[in-house]
């Protein structure tokens, strides 16, 4: 009986083939899925490495900027240098990287998710607008960057909160990253881990959007002018620096507000809302000296970090593809 059934099935398949039916090709489908998975993994690894290299390079400047952002002391390049030098004399050279372990815990997943999400959003928007495999038009280009930054910020925000706390407190206060999580949760409540989340998202949308938009636009313009599809590494660094300068300048006041809200528990303030925090900063310190405190340092630190980040991401991706490592 089984043989008869099997014979019928074979006859049906042969009849279908005779009528021109195309049978599914599972091997091709699996190959496509494997390629997609490799592409995602490539983006994640390249993004993680880019974020780690960029943030480690500027960690002392970043820590100094945060200390000024959350205090009412006036910022100047001279005062920033004095703070760095005093920290070095008091706690040693590696103390300038205090909080960098917490930064890495946040930056590695943040950069991996942001760069990977950007590649995925570019593909989705390119398909939707009919530009698949080509440079996106301006509005989708801006949207892809904003969505990528928002996705990464939502997932990794508590790690940013922990990093800010470690940067502004004495090393005796918290022993390690887990200690920060445990004590904040126990002493201030779990909601505190998302304090400052609103200004973060409000700042990430223009920052990530403008950064990716500027970088992609400069690469597109460069390719059109020179006929070279791949810029030299130093050109990628310059394009990334320009992107960082524009993106960070546009979102900087919200970055100050975010830091004040994140560190309120250890600075004695009770910042609760974005507008309330802005009003208090402006009332006590003024608009420029308050909301733009440390911006000049950011104009040094930001372009370097973003330039290194974009350049490292692109070159790592090219290297991984060239040697078929991923």
Automatic annotation (TrEMBL):
Family, per entry: Belongs to the mitochondrial carrier (TC 2.A.29) family.
Entry-linked PROSITE patterns: SOLCAR
Bilayer topology annotation: Multi-pass membrane protein
Gene3D superfamilies found in the cross-reference section: Mitochondrial carrier domain
Localization per Swiss-Prot or TrEMBL: Mitochondrion inner membrane
Lineage, top ranks: Eukaryota, Metazoa, Chordata, Craniata, Vertebrata
Record flagged with keyword Endoplasmic reticulum: no
InterPro entries documented for this protein: GDC-like, MCP, MCP_dom_sf, MCP_transmembrane
Record flagged with keyword Transmembrane helix: yes
Any GO CC annotation of this UniProt entry: mitochondrial inner membrane
Keywords noted in UniProt: Membrane, Mitochondrion, Mitochondrion inner membrane, Repeat, Transmembrane, Transmembrane helix, Transport
GO biological-process terms attached to the record: mitochondrial membrane organization; transmembrane transport
Matching Pfam families: Mito_carr
Each Solcar repeat, start to end: 38-124, 136-221, 231-319
Task performed by this protein: Mitochondrial carrier mediating the transport of coenzyme A (CoA) in mitochondria in exchange for intramitochondrial (deoxy)adenine nucleotides and adenosine 3',5'-diphosphate.
Protein name: Mitochondrial coenzyme A transporter SLC25A42
Reaction(s) the record says it catalyses: 3'-dephospho-CoA(in) + ADP(out) = 3'-dephospho-CoA(out) + ADP(in); dADP(in) + ADP(out) = dADP(out) + ADP(in); adenosine 3',5'-bisphosphate(in) + ADP(out) = adenosine 3',5'-bisphosphate(out) + ADP(in); ADP(in) + ATP(out) = ADP(out) + ATP(in)
Organism expressing this protein natively: Danio rerio
């Amino acid at each position: 009986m089984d043989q008869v059934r099997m014979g019928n099935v074979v006859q049906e398949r042969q009849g279908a083939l005779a009528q021109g039916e195309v049978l599914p090709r599972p091997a091709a489908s699996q190959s496509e899925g494997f390629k997609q998975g490799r592409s995602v993994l490539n983006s994640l690894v390249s993004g993680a490495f880019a974020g780690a290299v960029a943030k480690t390079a500027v960690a002392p400047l970043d820590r100094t900027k945060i200390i000024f952002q959350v205090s009412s002391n006036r910022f100047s390049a001279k005062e920033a240098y004095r703070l760095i030098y005093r920290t070095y004399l008091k706690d040693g050279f590696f103390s300038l990287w205090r909080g960098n372990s917490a930064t890495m815990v946040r930056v590695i997943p943040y950069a991996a998710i942001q760069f990977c999400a950007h590649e995925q959003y570019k593909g989705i928007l390119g398909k939707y607008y009919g530009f698949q495999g080509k440079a996106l038009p301006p509005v989708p280009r801006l949207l892809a960057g904003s969505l990528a930054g928002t996705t990464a910020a939502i997932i990794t925000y508590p790690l940013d909160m922990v990093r800010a706390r470690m940067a502004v407190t004495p090393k005796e206060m918290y022993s390690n990253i887990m200690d920060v999580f445990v004590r904040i949760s126990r002493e201030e409540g779990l909601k505190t881990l998302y304090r400052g989340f609103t200004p973060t998202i409000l700042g990430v949308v223009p920052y990530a959007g403008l950064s990716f938009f500027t970088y992609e636009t400069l690469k597109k313009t460069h390719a059109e002018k020179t006929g070279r599809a791949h810029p030299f590494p130093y050109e990628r660094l310059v394009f990334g620096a320009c992107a960082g300068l524009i993106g960070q300048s546009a979102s900087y006041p919200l970055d100050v507000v975010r830091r004040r809200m994140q560190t309120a528990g250890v600075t004695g303030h009770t910042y609760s809302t974005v507008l309330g925090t802005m009003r208090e900063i402006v009332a006590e310190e003024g608009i420029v000296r308050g909301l733009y405190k440390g911006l000049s340092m950011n104009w040094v630190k930001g372009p370097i970090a973003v330039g290194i980040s974009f350049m490292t991401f692109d070159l790592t991706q090219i290297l991984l593809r060239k040697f078929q490592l991923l």
